[in-house]
User: Which sequence fits this backbone?
């Protein structure tokens, strides 16, 4: 199941930070039979137990976990990039396009009757909104929502703490068409990934000012427009409950409610086996061994864009020196970490030698220039001696991103970057920070060369040239010591039997309105 496909979402990795740092400090589909050494599923593999709506009963509850209590729900704000927050926002806000299993976007007819490029010189996109689509405050969706979102995210007003301005910065005008439900978007320079913009679409009132952009979304989703809405927030129980919106104009969801429970990751497997939740990750060896034999469980496997990353903070301390960052990277045995992470799993994770492509994607190649392989001799040449003194600091799950990652308050940290199906959305993670806004480049390591290459890549519509530019940028990112990709995390779920249209979606969109319990 994908989380937050529209943003460069961050998620806590299952492999402990301690494991990564220990390595660094030395002189970080279908069923597959682990005993036969299976390979990773091909890109586009889904495992949802698909069923038509007629097979599902009306009603029932889906109980899920999230990694932390959510403080910011605006997925476009610098503090709102945590994956679970974005997933909940996308459940209740307009998703204009849905991705299929291979990551290809398709217009969502619940919100758009049409969306097409009507001119190439300049590039102009015309959207026609579904006239039935209305916000929970009664206002119809309109061109004004597009205009407000563009103004908040185009980077021209620095008071908006935007996580990512890519794409929006290339728009020169958002205008009313034949009526309020027709929108014309004109680009000053071409943008190949235009379908990722305005998705989710947010209401104009909440993008209107820098204050509403940030504070209106703090701990709440104030205005919605989708099959589900938020029914309750229970800070004491650490649960958020989504329920069907009675004013929804599309097909009625099968579920009565979806409950998200903020729970520390160490408790997921026990919560699942105790039937307190209905699915959990089985991607760690310990979890897989405990879950694979449970009689009421299906093990479902897919292929997701999911990179386990070691982030090096170049904004402070010894890691400000590029040679120190490079030496640290050379001290990590990534193959050993991937082997530990995949022990006894149905397939082995693959070490990643690219920041922008997964091993099972077209365009993937090794651009590491040797920085991806443990080499203490080369590290010693950079420092006269390799040795990293590590002081591990354990922090509460609810604080991990809000107080540490998002604030660049770390030296080395491990997290996951997920669902970068549109490669241009990676820009925020590598671009040069502007003042206090790091975008999503929390380690602050950047260069004019990388900025220029990623901007150029986003502006070309030639697929082969785009791939070449991203790979050139990737080589530069490796040399900078920006971060160390570790491996592609396996997508293995333990799912309660009888739960249909739910599970690993590959590169596709999560569609919980279709999920439900078999009759």
Assistant:
């Amino acid at each position: 199941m994908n989380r937050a496909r529209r943003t460069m979402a961050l998620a806590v990795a299952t492999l402990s930070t301690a494991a990564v740092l220990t390595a660094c400090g030395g002189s970080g589909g279908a069923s597959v039979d682990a005993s036969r050494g299976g390979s990773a599923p091909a890109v586009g593999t889904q495992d949802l137990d698909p069923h038509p709506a007629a097979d599902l009963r009306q009603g029932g509850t889906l109980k899920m976990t999230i990694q932390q209590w959510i403080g910011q729900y605006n997925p476009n704000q610098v503090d709102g990039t945590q994956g679970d927050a974005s997933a909940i926002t996308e459940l209740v806000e307009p998703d204009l396009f849905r991705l299929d299993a291979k990551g290809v976007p398709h217009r969502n007819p619940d919100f758009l009757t049409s969306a097409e490029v009507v001119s190439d010189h300049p590039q102009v996109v015309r959207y026609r909104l579904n006239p039935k689509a209305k916000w929970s405050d009664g206002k119809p969706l309109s061109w004004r929502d597009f205009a407000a979102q563009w103004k908040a995210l185009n980077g021209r007003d620095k008071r908006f703490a935007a996580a990512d301005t890519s794409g929006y910065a290339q728009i020169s005008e958002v205008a009313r068409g034949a009526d309020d439900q027709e929108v014309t978007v004109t680009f000053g320079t071409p943008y190949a990934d235009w379908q990722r913009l305005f998705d989710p679409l947010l209401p104009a009132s909440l993008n209107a000012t820098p204050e509403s952009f940030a504070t209106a979304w703090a701990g709440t989703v104030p205005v919605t427009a989708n099959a589900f809405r938020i029914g309750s927030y229970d800070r004491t129980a650490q649960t958020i409950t989504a329920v069907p919106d009675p004013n929804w104009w599309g097909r009625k969801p099968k579920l009565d409610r979806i409950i998200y429970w903020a729970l520390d990751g160490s408790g997921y497997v026990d919560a699942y086996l105790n039937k307190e939740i209905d699915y959990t990750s089985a991607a760690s060896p310990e979890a897989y061994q405990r879950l694979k034999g449970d009689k009421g469980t299906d093990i479902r496997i897919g292929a997701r864009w999911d990179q386990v990353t070691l982030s090096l903070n170049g904004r402070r301390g010894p890691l400000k020196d590029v040679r120190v960052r490079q030496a640290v990277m050379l001290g990590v045995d990534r193959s050993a970490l991937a082997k530990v992470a995949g022990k006894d799993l149905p397939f082995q994770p693959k070490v990643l030698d690219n920041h922008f492509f997964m091993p099972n994607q077209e365009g993937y190649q090794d651009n590491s220039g040797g920085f991806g392989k443990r080499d203490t001799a080369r590290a010693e040449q950079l420092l006269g001696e390799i040795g990293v003194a590590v002081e591990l600091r354990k922090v509460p799950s609810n604080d991990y991103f809000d107080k540490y990652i998002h604030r660049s308050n770390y030296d080395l940290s491990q997290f996951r970057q997920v669902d970068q199906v549109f490669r241009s959305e990676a820009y925020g993670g590598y671009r040069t920070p502007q003042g206090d806004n790091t975008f999503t480049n929390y380690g602050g390591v950047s260069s004019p060369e990388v900025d220029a290459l990623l901007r150029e890549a986003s502006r070309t519509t030639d697929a082969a040239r785009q791939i070449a530019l991203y790979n050139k940028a990737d080589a530069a990112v490796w040399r900078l010591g920006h971060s160390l990709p570790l491996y592609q995390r396996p997508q293995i779920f333990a799912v309660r039997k009888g739960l249909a249209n739910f599970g690993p979606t590959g590169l596709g969109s999560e569609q919980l309105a279709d999920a439900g319990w078999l009759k």
Notes: The longest strand covers residues 112-120.
